[in-house]
Amino acid sequence: MSYFRCTYFGQYGVANRIDPDQVKKVLNKTEELYVFLNSHADKKKSLRLIDSRLGTRQHKLAVCPAPILHYAEWTVLPQFFEMWIEHGATKFYLYHHSISPEVDALFRIYENDPRIDIERVPYGIIPVPENSSETEDVNQQIFGGEQVFAWNDCIIRSRGKTKYIALVDFDEVFVVLKNQSFLSVLENGLEAEPATGAFVFRSTPASYKHTYSNVTHPTQITFDNYGSIQVERRTFPAGIMSKVVVIPERILSTNVHLPWAMEAPFTEKVISPETSKILHLRCLSS
């Protein structure tokens, strides 16, 4: 059997020696910003410059799930949105590559929800010839979707827009203990350690029975099955299945389960699982 490794992956760069006058012109749309390779200077791609200077933040908590690829399980999405709305989230960044019509319709329902703002970020399709077969189309082989790249882009994109941003997956339930709210966990942690730039939440495996196999409409969904979740006793250490909530201006880059690099002098804080933790859900057939 032959194995192939894809070496096509996303990258982001840091621009140095920026002329403030040119930046103003780009923001005012009197000039354009381009990116290109020195070896192919004729193949320029225009870039949209996002103003992320810190002003009056519109949101307290934003959520950025991993890139959505080949996704059709629309019945789990209401739980995801409602949980985060209950936690105080008012902004969602959705990096989408390939989704079913049902998932798109569910997203549109929440795009019309006055409680929240959803920003869809198209996640680039790799260009292939139009007559490519399914086996030759590399877009059909993508799995994982470079979530590290997307989440670092999301951190930069959210600067100046939100105080906190949660970098999460659809199969995670963040639970809060000791009669607190999710936002109070963050605020109390920041008050106790003002230099905190990233909060690390540890993970506990859990499972529940899927009861939505015959559901055809969102109104048929209830959350009753979440009342009988089977939770394991173990909680993984930080770095294994953990996830982070960051203050965008205080972090340089992140990995999936831990921050990579912080802006000086900021640090990361691991939240005690006795205060709040993740239930990492695995769905069992009913």
UniProtKB/TrEMBL annotation:
Stretches that traverse the bilayer: none
Enzyme class: transferase
Signal peptide bounds: none
Protein name (database record): Glycosyltransferase family 92 protein
Record keywords, A-Z: Glycosyltransferase, Membrane, Transferase, Transmembrane, Transmembrane helix
InterPro entries per record: Glyco_transf_92
Compartments (UniProt record): Membrane
Entry superkingdom: Eukaryota
Major location category of this protein: membrane
UniProt GO MF annotations: glycosyltransferase activity
Protein family according to the UniProt entry: Belongs to the glycosyltransferase 92 family.
Membrane topology classification: Single-pass membrane protein
